[in-house]
Amino acid sequence: MSCLRIADDALDAIRRHAAETYPDECCGALIGHARAHESAPSVLTAVPLPNQTEEGPRRRFLVRPGDYRHAEAQARAAGVELLGFYHSHPDHPARPSQYDLDHAWPNLSYVIVAVDGGTPGAVASWRLRADRLAFDEEGLEQTRT
Amino acid sequence: MATKVFIPTPLRPFTGKQDVVELEGRTVGELLRTLITTYSDLRPHLYADDGRLRSFVNVYLNDDDIRYLQKEETEVKTGDTVSIIPSVAGGAPVDTSVRSSREGPPLTNEEVQRYSRHLIMPEVGVDGQRRLKAGRVLCIGAGGLGSPAALYLAAAGVGRLGIVDFDVVDYSNLQRQIIHGTPDVGRPKLQSARERIGAINPGVEVVTYETQLTSKNALDLFADYDVIVDGTDNFPTRYLVNDACVLLGKPNAYGSIFRFEGQASVFGVKGGPCYRCLYPEPPPPGLVPSCAEGGVLGVLPGVIGTIQATETIKLLLGAGEPLVGRFLIYDAWRMRFRELKLRRDPACPVCGDHPTIRELIDYEQFCGVSPARAPVVEPREMDSETTVGDLKRRLDRGDNVFVLDVREPQEFQICRIPGSTLVPLGELPSRLAEIPRGAGAPDIVVHCKSGVRSAKAARLLADRGYDRVQNLKGGILAWIDQIDPSQPKY
């Protein structure tokens, strides 16, 4: 199983963002150091992004191309990489839905935070398989900042 | 001339970590094809199986989304750059549980006994059965589909069953509408339905609405229910049920039947497709025959109505895999089930991203069956018509009348007007030689069962140069009602 390391601060920020937007979904980008030799990729910062969905934010999120570009540019400016995205599942488990799968990009980490009645709960990270047929869960390792 | 194509982070592992590749191509489409040929692992992520760019893949020519240029035909000039930029989308599973928060009243000892086969399954259990007890389901129609649906929903312990119908039981209903019996012929369908449900499960609250479902009453009627079971047999009501369900956010357990084929799906669930995503426009009026015209295997609505009941129960339980985004087609003749994938259409006028229908409309007019649109459909002069009384007088007088029956042979076997000639509508264009014409030829009176097919036939004959063609109003049904009640109606 691959592993994603994530800084305490970044994880807290994701949880806070998810609680603030409840019952709507939140979303944002994960930037940090890419995988290097023996070490797992490591998220340094969670960048909140506006949820631009037009299908109802209770059950959907959308990061538009402009915001994607912004996140990628921000990573580049900081000399790090775009590692993935996070979003919340209000009152649903931290598992990807069929809709997540249908819209997923490869080689990114998808961090999902469950929010139960406004309280952030389980967090899990997922990566799309090369054949696009499923997600695999990856380990999530918290690091001190 | 090489064009720079910018590759986003998630795709760089497929391009040898390059964030820019230089490719040759005259249009954006050509560039992208070269790209996926050169780096073939990119293909499944950029293109769907149908060969179209995936919805979350955005391609920009300089600063413009090619969707707003000439799409993949957009030409690329010297110095242009092309960028592939992701949209990142996702979200929680669509919530198909209609009332997950309502746990329902406790079960009595008698109910525990009655529903024991449900209760011992962990998928239902006591909690699930209480949800069913709290559930409120509205059946549109107590006919072929509504009969089995209502019977099984009642037996399963759904707390409140509403039924909308304004028809009376006819002998021709009994071959499939099993909620009604022979002694019920002539009685309102709502009465017999209420009695049957009461006999099966007196714990069910039955609410009857003896009215036609219309744009005026639909939203009020639906408001009190969790799931709507569409058992209608006509397009205006089908679109009405669909739109009302979408506007109210209520799931529609849909079913339809014709001859040997049935269809079922669940529409109107948030994020899922609706009937209009599948059929944005109704068929031209008269093109798709009804069961009254085309017939239906009696057991077929039993299968489809039971599927609708199954879906309704799962929706109330908030469990299982509902038929959302899937369109089930059942062929009873070949005994095959097929399933089509169905997606919500972002451009759908009622459930799309930018809906244009925000309230109920005139569905008779929308489906072209009301007078408002009739002149558009038939811009010609009034077709010539005659009545059964007039035909009878002319036949009795010995007038020279050619009575042309355009029904099917199996209908002709049931009943006929004496002396009539059978040429089914579909064969008429190739059998015109059998229809007398010219000087001294008789007047032609065309009839079918009720007057729809014969109107088409009369028009066809008029177009082919026959004059003195008349359509028999009300068809053979009117003939039997008014002239010859000894013959059977069907």
Number of helices of chain A: 3
Report strand order across the widest sheet of chain A.
1-3-2-5-6-7-8
**Percentage beta strand of chain A:** 35-45%
Q: Mean of the pLDDT scores of chain B?
A: 91
Number of strands of chain A: 8
Question: Any overview of this molecule?
Answer:
- The complex is a heterodimer of chains A (145) and B (490).
- Chain A has 145 residues and is of the alpha/beta class.
- Chain A has three helices and eight strands; from the N terminus they run E-H-E-E-E-H-E-H-E-E-E.
- Chain A has helices spanning 8-21, 65-77, 98-102; strands at 3-7, 27-33, 42-49, 61-63, 81-90, 109-116, 119-128, 135-143.
- In chain B, helix 6 (146-156) links the parallel strand 7 and strand 8 (160-164).
- The radius of gyration of chain B is 29 Å and the shape is flat.
- At the A-B interface, strand 4, helix 2, strand 5 and helix 3 of A face strand 6 of B.
- Strand 4 (61-63) of chain A pairs antiparallel with strand 6 (88-90) of chain B.
Q: What's a concise summary of this model?
A:
By secondary structure, chain A is an alpha/beta fold.
Provide the descriptors you would attach to this structure in a database record.
heterodimer, A: 145 residues, alpha/beta, 7-stranded mixed barrel, 3 helices, globular, B: 490 residues, 8-stranded mixed β-sheet, 5-stranded mixed β-sheet, 18 helices, 18% strand
